[in-house]
Structures are given as structure tokens and as C-alpha cells.
Amino acid sequence: MKLLKKSALLLLTLAFMASPEIIGAQEIELPAHETNSASMSVSQALATRHSVREYSSKELSAQELSNVCWAAVGMSRDDNHRTSPTAMNRQEIRLFVFDKNAVYEYMAKTNVLKQVVKGDHRDLLAGGKFPQKFVMDAPVTLLMVIDFDLFKSQEEHAKQMTCVDAGIVSENINLYCQAAGLVTVPRAQMDKEAISKLLGLSSSQLPILNNPIGYPKERD
Ligand SMILES: Cc1cc2nc3c(=O)[nH]c(=O)nc-3n(C[C@H](O)[C@H](O)[C@H](O)COP(=O)(O)O)c2cc1C
């Protein structure tokens, strides 16, 4: 009996050590991103990058999630610059993480995932009228949301710039995944209205692109 208790305690300790640090019910601290996690050069990633719509059920580790969020919109050379450039450095692209447990917002400055809503809502990303069901097979999807309040304008030119900025974030994700052995596809399709409602977005916040991310599906 004593031995059983000891093994249970050891298992619990190991599970805790393997998982990201849970700060409170609402926040998960990610491990610091790695800068040497990719196994190929930028040129190789550019030459081999392609969209993938089939995923293995293997989950991303907390380290992988940290790395890919950082590649998307993480802080780079100082605390006012990101891995992805934005027009006038407005940093208006917010990043949300959907997985089977919840939806979180990635807070770049603190490297924390802040829970926005509990539950599996990946079906909303799959799409409205003609859903792309493969999105639900990917363990994680990153959603890019334009925040026009952060951009400080909704003029036509500003709108164009924010879309360009979101595209750059998505390409950072595409290239990081290719280099790190993950697979993804940039997507515009999703149920924007339902997602806005779920995340409590205002009329000046617009879901624009998403990237399902996972490991390649094993071939038989
Ligand atoms: C802005 C944008 C939106 C896209 N939207 C979708 C989408 O909703 N669903 C999808 O399956 N693929 C989508 N794609 C992926 C393209 O179909 C894909 O990139 C293209 O066919 C070229 O293939 P490649 O990425 O393998 O080079 C999108 C790509 C871009 C750049």
C-alpha cells in the first residue's frame, strides 16, 4: 500500500514537471521559446513549405506551442518589437490558441496563455457553410485577430495594412512549422460571427486568418 502511494506521488510529480506551469485557473505560463529548435535553414523552409490538411493525433508539447506562438507574434529584439513586423509597429494582430480544452490568448510580453473560454471550439474554425472537418484533427489552431483599436484607424488604407500584417504573422507560422517538423495550412475560412461572439470581440476586432497546426499524419 505504501509503495502504491509512493508511486502515485511520483507519477503526479512527474506529470507536473512535464506540463507548463499553471499560474492560476486562467493562466498558463509557457516555457521560454527556443531559438535553435528548427532543423533547416530559412531557404530550405521556403523551398519545401507546403499546405497540409491531414494531421496526426499527436499533441504539441508546451515547448512547441511556445516556439510557434513566439514565431508568430513573440517579442524579438526588445520589448517593443515582434518577430513579425507590422505597419507603423502598431502590433495590432492578436493571437488566440484553440485546443481541445479551451481558447486562450497568447500574451507575448509575459509568455502566458490567458484562458478566454473553456471547452473545445475548434468546430467554429472549421467553417460555416461548408466546414473543413480536418481542422478538428489538428491539436491546435492559431487564430489571428485584427484589433483596429490597437491600429488606431479603420480607414481603407489602414484596413489593407492590417490584412498584410496578418498575412505576415501567418507566414511566420508557416515557415516555423516547416522548419520544426510540424505541418499547417493558412486559412481564411471560419465562422467569424460565432467566433467573435464566443471570444467577446467588439466590432473593431476582426478574426482574419487561422493556422491549424500538428504533426504529419502517419502513413500506413
Ligand atoms: C490568405 C489565404 C487564405 C487561405 N484560405 C484557405 C482556406 O480557407 N482553406 C484551405 O484549405 N486553404 C486555404 N489556403 C491555402 C491555399 O489554398 C494554399 O496556400 C494554396 O493552394 C497553395 O498551396 P501551398 O500552400 O501548398 O503552396 C489559404 C491561403 C491563403 C494565403
Defining key terms:
7 helices, alpha+beta, binds flavin mononucleotide, globular, 21% strand, NADH Oxidase, 8-stranded antiparallel β-sheet, 8 strands, 220 residues, single chain
Q: What do these coordinates show?
A:
- This protein is an alpha+beta fold and 220 residues long.
- The protein has one domain: 3-Layer(aba) Sandwich (NADH Oxidase), CATH 3.40.109.
- Helix content is 35%, strand content 21%.
- It contains seven helices and eight strands; from the N terminus they run αββααβββαβααβαβ.
- Helix 2 crosses helix 6 and helix 3 packs antiparallel against helix 6.
- The longest helix is centred in the C-terminal third of the chain and has 25 residues.
- About 5% of the residues have low confidence.
What is the CATH H-level superfamily? NADH Oxidase
Share of residues in helices: 25-40%
Give the overall average pLDDT. 91
Uncertain stretches of 5 or more adjacent residues:
8-19
**Rounded radius of gyration (Å):** 18 Å
Strand order of the largest sheet: 1-2-5-4-3-6-8-7
The gross shape turns out to be globular
Q: What kind of assembly state do the chains in view correspond to?
A: single chain
User: What's the CATH class, please?
Assistant: Alpha Beta
* Strand fraction: 15-25%
Overall number of strands: 8
Q: Report the biggest beta sheet as strand number plus sense, adding barrel if it closes.
A: 8 strands, antiparallel
